[in-house]
Amino acid sequence: MILPTWFLITMGLLIVAIVMVDVFWSTLSTNGAGPISDEVTSLIWRIFRMIHRRRQSHNLLKLSSVIILVMIFGMWILLLWTGWTVVFISSTDAVLVQETQDPAAIRERIYFVGMTLFTLGTGDLVAGGSGWRLMMSIAAFNGLLFTTLVITYLLPVVSAAVDRRQLALSIWGLGESAEQILVNGWNDGNFKQLEDQLHAISMLLLLHAERHLAYPVLQYFHASDPRADLSPRIATLDDATSLLEFCVSPDTRLTPSSVRSMRQALDCYFRRVEKQHIYRADKPPPLPDFDRLRKAEIPLCDGEAMREGFRQNEDRRRLSYGLLRGDAWHWGD
Questions:
Q1: Model pTM?
Q2: What is the C-alpha to C-alpha distance for residues 2 and 56, in angstroms, rounded to an integer?
């Protein structure tokens, strides 16, 4: 059965509209990835995680971000190409051979659409009639707009990925664990130096959280070294903040505004990643080693008060733990 021209044109333009909505949503919106891109990236990441469980290779996961970007762009190109091809096969007179003025074959029309979308064309195939020439001009503009959006999206994503790695290394520079952050920051009976460092990191974390919303693919930029990957460092920073808030003796604690600003930055980051198929762990991770802090002669509250503080923070710690495990790391990392 031959489908009517109007039906094929409508179906082709609908495919083009769907893919362009996804492109606009992903590249211009600050509300996360488009619905199609979100599902595709999540599926590809789950496949890489399944392979990782068998091979235990973080270098493989490191490649996932490149594969995900290539697959997203490839999906957009394929859908866009398909949509306009459906439009230009709807009528026998839509595309003609320049020399003979005969209707072009389907393979030639596919070639014509690709040349129209992504190049200036070669002239061996032409649109038949003024209406189809107008449609060809719209397709050419669509291809130019698509290419521009993809390029302008890719460059800041790469820059944000570098900043993500820098942020992770900055947190690691404070200490390899939550306890070590406090031990390193304890100087002359106070945490003044640590307070200044945490304030700077909270500003960077807020910036990254907003970039995370604009470029959700950042979640899949995995580092093979836990020191340079953000998920283990966020878990460390969150526990260190809890230690400063609940466990350190009140007369040596940071100012409430400093702890609050760090909490707000962490909360902002957690809200962003929760939108990307990140789930809470069934149970919270192990408590920090309080004895290590006592050996460093850091004044602490009594043991029950410290445990109660961490119980109040259990939901956040389960989310932090889920983020860590979702990124293929263990608590010991």
A1: 0.82
A2: 52
